[in-house]
């Protein structure tokens, strides 16, 4: 006698339709089990990180679902990059309101799957739930590093040079443009410049291509998620050191420079606003040239902006050498 097949729940169908195709790692077991298995290579250890993004807080609820998926995964990939870790996989928790329909899920899963392939970070499992609130996405990502080699925040030393990747402040200015429709005109931005800044807020560019070079050359590092001033301050506090940064050397995009030229007070927004998802690293002086060469080879812009000092706080110095005073150092939820 044939056994009756148990009908699949709506949640099971959702997972099978949209997320089973993303679970390419053998340890994911096709998402039919309650857990996954991840075996790091010999001599390696697992690096774990988790970040959640919430509609109306970290993204606009009318943002394209594909961009939301990219942000959810990439903010975690950025953490792995700053630790020198190679991505190994991720777990996804997706809390959905009743208003989410199939086209949204289809676009979300398509973009998430593409990033999972592009960054070699497959889906390993997760959970889906309903929520009366906005869309909420939590991702726990896993990476691997040689045993004992993960880059810490707490290992910067006096005399190290301070390096950042990419450009700083674009995302914060892009968010300001989304919140203030008249800002682009006041800042004298072209349509192309406005679009550039808005896109930098919408979709992070994690610097995983530089992870191995950081592992080899950096003494300490972290990703810039809450603002360069505040995040460098956190690194300095963990290491028991200070820092001096020349604001004129902080890399800015052409669009950011134009906005700041129109409104000089925006330099504080650029330095403290967050969502850059670049990397700030401290590098022994003897290794600086090698790191810069590796960054160039990886097609990742890098800029030396200052040095680690023996004590005090992280100071951002203007052209006259005077420390800038900020209303707040970084974004904070609390």
Quote the distance from N terminus to C terminus: 61 Å
Principal-axis shape: globular
Counting DSSP H or I runs of 4 or more residues, the number of helices is: 11
Give the fraction of residues assigned to helices.
Answer: 25-40%
The figure for the number of domains is 2
Percent range for β-strand residues: 15-25%
Trace the largest sheet across and list its strands.
6-8-5-9-7-10
Helix-and-strand structural type: alpha+beta
Mean pLDDT level: 93
Describe this structure in words.
The chain is an alpha+beta fold and 334 residues long. The protein folds into two domains: 10-32 and 41-146, 2-Layer Sandwich (60s Ribosomal Protein L30, Chain: A); 161-317, Alpha-Beta Complex (Phosphoribosyl-aminoimidazole Synthetase, Chain A, domain 2), CATH 3.90.650.10. The protein is 35% helix and 22% strand. The chain has eleven helices and ten strands. It has helices at residues 10-19, 65-82, 102-118, 170-179, 183-186, 191-202, 211-217, 228-239, 254-262, 266-272, 288-297, and strands at 44-54, 86-96, 123-130, 136-146, 161-165, 220-224, 242-246, 278-283, 302-309, 314-317. The strands form two sheets. A six-stranded mixed sheet has the order 6-8-5-9-7-10, sandwiched between helices. A four-stranded mixed sheet has the order 1-4-2-3. Helix 4 crosses helix 10 (266-272). The longest helix is centred in the first third of the chain and has 18 residues, at 65-82. It is globular and about 70 Å long. 45% of the residues are buried. The mean pLDDT is 93.
């Amino acid at each position: 006698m044939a056994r009756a097949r148990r009908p699949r729940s709506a949640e099971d169908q959702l997972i099978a339709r949209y997320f089973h195709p993303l679970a390419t790692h053998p340890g994911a077991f096709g998402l039919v089990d309650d857990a996954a298995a991840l075996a790091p290579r010999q001599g390696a250890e697992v690096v774990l990180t988790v970040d959640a993004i919430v509609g109306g807080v970290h993204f606009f609820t009318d943002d394209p679902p594909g961009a939301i998926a990219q942000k959810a995964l990439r903010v975690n990939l950025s953490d792995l990059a700053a630790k020198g870790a190679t991505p190994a996989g991720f777990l996804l928790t997706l809390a959905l309101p009743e208003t989410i329909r199939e086209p949204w899920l289809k676009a979300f899963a398509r973009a998430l799957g593409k990033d999972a392939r592009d960054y070699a970070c497959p889906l390993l499992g997760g959970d889906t739930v309903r929520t009366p609130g906005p869309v909420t996405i939590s991702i726990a990502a896993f990476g691997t590093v040689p045993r004992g080699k993960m880059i810490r925040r707490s290992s910067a030393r006096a005399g190290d040079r301070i390096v950042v990747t990419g450009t700083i402040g674009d995302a914060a200015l892009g968010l300001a443009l989304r919140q203030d429709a008249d800002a682009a005109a006041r800042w004298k931005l072209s349509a192309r410049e406005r679009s550039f800044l808005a896109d930098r807020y919408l979709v992070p560019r994690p610097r995983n291509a530089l992870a191995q070079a950081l592992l080899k050359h950096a003494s300490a590092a972290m990703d810039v998620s809450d603002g360069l001033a505040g995040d460098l301050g956190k690194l300095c506090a963990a290491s028991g050191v200070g820092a001096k940064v020349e604001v004129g050397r902080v890399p800015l995009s052409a669009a950011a420079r134009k906005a700041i030229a129109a409104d000089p007070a925006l330099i504080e927004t650029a330095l403290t606003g967050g969502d850059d998802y670049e990397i700030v690293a401290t590098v022994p002086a003897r290794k600086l040239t090698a790191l810069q060469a590796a960054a160039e080879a990886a097609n990742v812009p890098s800029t030396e902006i200052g040095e680690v000092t023996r004590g005090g706080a992280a100071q951002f110095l203007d052209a006259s050498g005077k420390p800038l005073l900020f209303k707040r150092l970084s974004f904070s939820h609390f």
